[in-house]
Amino acid sequence: MPGLSPLDLTGLIGVALFLLPQTLFFAFYSLLGLYSKRYSEKRGLEAYLGETVSIIIPVRGEPPDYVEMALKRVSELSSTVDVEVIIVSDDPPEFLEYLRRLVDEWSRRLKVYYVWRSEPRGFRAGALNVGLYASTGDYVYVMDVDSFFDPCLVLRGVSLLKSSERLAGVVGRWSVWNKGSRLSEALAYNMEYVVNVLFKARSALSLDIFPLGTGTLFKASVLKELGGWDEERLQDDMDLGVRLYRRGYRVEYIDSCRVYVEAPTRYSSLRVQQERWAYGATDVLLARLGALLRSPVSLVSKVESALFLGQYTVVLLLWVGFAVTATVSLLGGVDYTAKYAFITGAWLFSQALFAAVETYTLGAGLRESAVNQGRMAAVTVALSVPILRGVAKALARARQEYKRTPKGLFERRMRGKGVSGELALLVALAVVLFLVALRKYVLLSLITCMYMVSVVYTLIRWPRDIIGLK
């Protein structure tokens, strides 16, 4: 650019990489949050006529009481809906006897079967495909053991699916049922807004809806037409969404029917989940971008879907930009976040806008919003470590092991392993803060301090999860 020295140009690029992707992210999802108010649900659908719904429950290393609780919840549904349950187990042989006894006990009240895969293949998708081709229902619902759903999702979902040949699935509204910890409470608050953005606003704008791993009722015939779930993809729901769009199918959303899911109560569990999601979303973007661009949907929908799949790359750009900005600022003797204050100002404004819109659309009190937004902001900075790991593996096309999100007893037993990426991030931020503070770079010091405090908060709240302390 004319008039810019190489250092100034590098500083501009660094600040742009650091702050602009975040700015666009917050601004875009603020606008979607406001637009979610225009959502309206379809009415006047034909009645449910007793069609069979096959519920597939994939299990691998799940607490036994969770499996039994899932069957109990489905049995309550069976008085309203004709259901069959297919449990697909990827557990070791010693779990098989327990599963056999459990199915025998519940088969008196419920049509329930089990399939044991002695050689689990294809991640979770492989188990789902076994369940799909063992099922007999016209409709299929995938249910995680830690979730349950309103009967209306089936009653209204089947009716909606019958209304259009090109409609492949119906998604219910995700809600967190366990709010007994600081983390799960913050996740529940955040999820309410995320649902507004990803489902209500998309529906109002006629953008494509991605199916959910649990919480989507499908036409079995469409799933079989596609050959089931792709066993090469870790994030099977996002991948399935793109493949449906490519075939000209769509997914719709019902806000009034809820799907209740368990949120992680520990940072260690959330870390496992987010690394898997970051890898999975980025992997689907790389593997299916061509299919998405060739799909018969609008250009706006293609762009929005691609941005959604690439959401975790914002974290990669953030830290690359931060490293460039800090390095060039120290070399050039200039605080580039202050020199290009118009970018920094836009970034600050977008965050304030996002917080205000989230509070407004959820109708939450100021204290509730401030507490939960603060918790999520802090934890998100620490989570950038596993997210970066997941994104990097996907970009390198490295194979990622499918790790389930620990629940119940398994979650309570988890501990950190001593030295962690979060500690390394904390040390790096402390070094940068010391150096930029010596130069009296006020704005860059404040931003660095903000990130550092976020990691410190996470470490204080969950020391056992990060470094193994009791």
UniProtKB/TrEMBL annotation:
Domain Glycosyltransferase 2-like as annotated: residue spans: 139-342
GO cellular component terms, semicolon-separated: membrane
Keyword Transferase: yes
Ranges in coiled-coil conformation: none
InterPro entries xref list: Glyco_trans_2-like (IPR001173), Glycosyltr_2/OpgH_subfam (IPR050321), Nucleotide-diphossugar_trans (IPR029044)
Membrane topology: Multi-pass membrane protein
Compartmental location: Membrane
Single GO MF annotation: glycosyltransferase activity
One family name in Pfam for this protein: Glyco_trans_2_3
Keywords: Glycosyltransferase, Membrane, Transferase, Transmembrane, Transmembrane helix
Keyword Acyltransferase applies: no
Transmembrane stretches, start-end: 12-35, 309-333, 340-357, 417-436, 442-460
PANTHER family, per database record: CELLULOSE SYNTHASE CATALYTIC SUBUNIT A [UDP-FORMING] (PTHR43867:SF2)
Protein name as catalogued: Glycosyl transferase, family 2
Organism: Thermogladius calderae (strain DSM 22663 / VKM B-2946 / 1633)
